[in-house]
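Re: weekly structure request thread

Next one in the queue (277 aa):
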Amino acid sequence: MNTYSEAVKTAQNYYNSDDADNFYSRLWGGEDIHIGLYESDQEPVLDASRRTVVRMAELVADKLGPEAKVLDIGGGYGGSARYIAEHYGAAVVSLNLSEVQNERGRRQTAERGLADKVTIVDGDFENIPFDANSFDVVWSQDAILHSGHRTRVLDEVARVLKPGGVLVFTDPMAADGVPADVLQPVLDRIQLETMGSPGFYREQLTRRGLTERTFEDHSAQVPRHYTRIHQELDTRRGELDGHISEAYVANMKKGLQHWVDAGRADRLAWGIMVFDN
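Done, posted below.
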């Protein structure tokens, strides 16, 4: 029986929509659909997005390898899972709520000959369908914000992470000390009442017995990334015609500008957080 929270259902419906699937698969190639680490303002989105994956893996390389079991929560099209499997030999589960994304991800995984290493599972991170102490690494990119019950997500992460394991994640966050009402345009865009913050994650994960290894603060990448997406929508508008509705494009551009404005005003935080169990 479907027991998804309302916030998770909202995210599921969005990512299952034809507009969203065509936007993410056509604009970003259906591989890595998260904030990138840009080296220039005009760098391709795909290159910057993949650099985030590479850097995250480097930070937890001590826990990756052929014997490692990795869980990617909110794994999108499974691009990160495939990268980890290809470059580190680990067995990776991508847990994701969008059946549409998952079907595309399974096809890509099979085409790459990685079906023996990468498993894509329909489900959500508020109710992770695995036993306690199952994974050496829990990984997540720009996904936890979609939960209306982030403390429950962190409970689940702590439950399935092995002793000695590591959590590595990114999440678009409110900068510490920024009140929610200041971020209302962004919150309206993602249909949520709150966002996490670096302080929130530090407090909550420490309370669950995890220890912070590092927080690489890349908050300046937020406005850079969303500016690039806005540019891509403009420059590639022709190839999207007939695949993405005018209403979706208009709403996307409006929403992207809210992210850019909030990022430039230092109201948002983003980076790579690593916690040891």
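The two ends are 32 Å apart (CA to CA). Residues 35 and 49 are 6 Å apart (CA to CA).
Next request, please.
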